[in-house]
Amino acid sequence: MLTEVNATRYVTPLREGGSLPGIVEADNLGTYVMKFTGAGQGRKTLVAEVICGELARRLGLRVPELVTIQLDPVIGLSEPDEEVQDLLKASGGLNLGMDYLPGSIGFDPLAYEVDAAEAGRVVWFDALINNVDRSWRNPNLLVWHGDLWLIDHGATMIWHHNWPTAQASAAKPYNASDHALAAFAPDIASAAAALAPLVTEELLAAVVADVPDEWLAGEPGFDTTDALRRAYAEPLLARAASIHERIVFDAPARTRPSQAPGWLADRLTPRPDRAKSTNDKDGVK
Ligand SMILES: Nc1ncnc2c1ncn2[C@@H]1O[C@H](COP(=O)(O)OP(=O)(O)OP(=O)(O)O)[C@@H](O)[C@H]1O
Ligand SMILES: [Mg+2]
Q1: What pLDDT score does 275 carry?
Q2: Which pLDDT belongs to residue 283?
């Protein structure tokens, strides 16, 4: 079960996110990026965030802590933006929170090196969950304290939008040509050898158990939320065994000019180089 907290203050919207997530403070003194049940994308996005985020964490990938956040819409009454007001009003009850990483920076493939092993693990994992939202246009990766962190797993497991065709849909290949880490020679074979055996029925049962019942209840075609939890686990279990054979790179990875100003490139350098630079007088902490 995810930790549950209560929102105490709505701080600000994150306008770069399509679903208009917001930064909120909670009664455990934490600060979270909150994804709202009332957002247009619907609660399936939140289910995907929990299942894929918690699966990634159990596979040793870095994902900021996930919590559920109780929201009393009155905390948004003084919010001047009407769009935000409407979102808060539509989202009373349980929402999703991701630990806010202060000072983190959006991943830039031209300013940050990723080794082939790590790139392989991320691409393999994205193939497993069929993540269509980790492209070089919108990497949904953060760099924080010199490490790569995975965020935003809302656009994954496309099969959960049409359960009758889920099995066929889950058998399809994963096209990684536009993946944010495609240019780093991802070592897919080693990632599959290390991670696929970890994706067991038991592990998946633990992961799907983290989804709050109220985000699963009432799904057409399922009498119980437990049946729906099993339906989420099945395609992932099936894909884990062989998805590495169906990862397609059909064109050379595209690149684009780095968006990072010079001073930022320094902060985006990965840990080994940073370790050196923190010994310098001018090193960035
Ligand atoms: N845990 C976090 N710590 C710091 N910043 C974050 C965190 N999570 C998200 N952000 C920032 O908020 C932005 C939007 O978050 P996210 O991508 O999860 O939202 P979204 O609405 O699903 O976006 P998208 O437009 O990609 O669908 C991110 O690009 C990042 O800049
Ligand atoms: Mg995003």
Answers
A1: 36
A2: 36
